[in-house]
Amino acid sequence: MEEKVVVITLNYNQNDYTIKCINSLIDSNYNYYNILLIDNGSTEDNYLQLQWELSKDSKIILKRIVQNCGYVGGINYGLEEGIKLNPDYFLIMNNDTIIDKNAIGELVRT
Fold first, then answer.
1. Which positions ≥6 away from 39 have C-beta within 8 Å?
2. Which residues contact 31 (CB under 8 A, 6 or more apart)?
3. Per-residue pLDDT tens over the stretch 43-94
4. CA–CA distance, 23 with 27 (Å, rounded to integer)
5. Is there a contact between 34 and 61 (Cβ–Cβ < 8 Å)?
6. CA–CA distance from 108 to each of 43, 55, 89, 97 (Å)?
7. Does residue 6 register a pLDDT over 90?
8. What percentage of the chain's residues is helix, strand, coil (to nearest 5)?
9. For residue 57, what is the DSSP state?
């Protein structure tokens, strides 16, 4: 049985970075994961664009915090939401990170 990973990343008005990051995660060859994307107080237009761009993949769970609560506050919110998915591991990434397709599997194996 593969171990479940929840990947948490934050967005704050940086859709270009975030979409590239999410696309690199979607290309992963590890299959047992979810992406928990926390929009941390972006403008309404920014959030709606992000929602539209990323609504096509069921691995992506988009949550919105209306008022920006800072990096740590956003990650803590993500951890609180992520624990509901009963993961074996969390992977916390900055939204400007591009991840190799083998990275999640290698991290789990380690």
1. 10, 11, 12, 46, 47, 50, 62, 63, 64, 65
2. 2
3. 999 999 999 988 888 999 999 999 999 999 999 999 999 999 999 999 999 9
4. 6
5. yes
6. 35, 26, 8, 18
7. yes
8. 40, 25, 35
9. -
